[in-house]
Amino acid sequence: MSGRVVTISISCYNYARFLGDAIDSALNQDYEHIQVIVVDDGSTDGSVEVASAYGDRILLVAQENAGQGSVFNVTMDHALGEIIMFLDADDVLEPGIVSRVVEIFDTEPDVVKVQFRLAVLNAQGEPTGVVKPPREGLLGNGDLRLRVMRTRNYAWTPTSANAFSAETLKTILPMPPERYVTEADAYLAEITPIFGLVRSIADIGVGYRIHGENVTISDGGAVTAEWARTRIASIDYCRSQVLRFAPIAGLDPRDCTPIEDLYDPAAITARLVSLRLDPELHPIKGDKAPRLAWMGLRSLKNLENVPSKSRAKRGAWFVAVGCTPLAVAERVMRAWTPDGPTHLAK
Predict the structure, then answer these.
(1) d(CA 303, CA 292)
(2) Helices (H), 184-288
(3) Fewer beta carbons under 10 A from the terminal one: N or C of the chain?
(4) Fold of 6-209
(5) In the chain, where are the structural domains located?
C-alpha cells in the first residue's frame, strides 16, 4: 500500500458529547499516514475544549459559525492529504475503512470518489441493526460522467460515508458558503463524478448516529413550498457548476441538461411541490402539474437499482400530486414526499 496521506476533517457544531468518539475513530485507524483536522463551526458547548485535549495529534481550526460549506472550504486550506474524508462529529469511522479506501485509490488511479455503506447508531452509539443502503449494488458505481451530465441522478451516500480525491476537490472548491449552510455534501456528490470514476463498495465504513437533534430543516421537516424552492435552487446551482466544470473534465457542456428538462425524480418532486403549494412564487415558468407528473413517471427508469415496489410508490405519488385536486395533493404530500425534508436528516 502506498504512503498517501489521508486527511480526515471532522465538522463540529455543539457536538461536544460526541466529538471525542469521532476523533478517536479517526486516530485509531490501522493506516499510518493520517491527518485529522477538527473544524469547529462556532460551538458554544465545550467542543473546542474537547478537541484541544488531543494536543498536536490533531489540527484544530475554530471559526465563527458559518455552516457546512464553509467547513469544507476551510478544510482545503489546511489539508495535506491526497485523499479527503469529511466526518460529521456525531458519526464514527469503522476500523480499517481508511486502509480500504487507500487500497482502492491505489488500484484505480481514475477514481475520484469512494462511497461506502453506513450502520445506523442510536444516541448512545449502539448499532440499531439498520444498514444503509441495506444491500450491495444499490449505490451508483463506475463511470457516471454522462449520467450525471444528462440526468443528475445516481444514488450517493451522506457526508461521512465518502472519500474524495483532493485534486478534484481543489478544482471544484471553494463553494459559496452562504448557499451551503447545510447540504454541502450534495454539491460534492453532484459535481465530483464528472471528473472520473465513482467506486461504491459493500464495506460498512461509518457509524451514522441518529440522536433526535440532527434534522437540519428549520421547519421540523414539513413539506413546504419554501423547502421545494430551496431544493430547486440548489439543484439548479449545481447544474450551473457541472456546466462550468465540464470542459475542465474533458466533457462537452452541451451534454449538461438544464433543470427544466432534467429527468431526475428528486428535481421533479421539488418542482411539483413548489408548483402545487405556491404557484405564484414557483421559480420555473411554464411548468404544468400534469406534465411534471408525466416527466416524473418517465424519470423512474433512471432508478434501475431501486426496488420495483419503491418505484411504483414514487410513480403513484407523481400521479396523485400532479393530477388530482389540490386538497388531495396536499394530503398526499403531507403523508409522504419522496426525497422530502425528513429524508435530509443529518
Answers:
(1) 17
(2) 184-191, 225-245, 265-277
(3) N
(4) Spore Coat Polysaccharide Biosynthesis Protein SpsA; Chain A (3.90.550)
(5) 6-209, 225-344
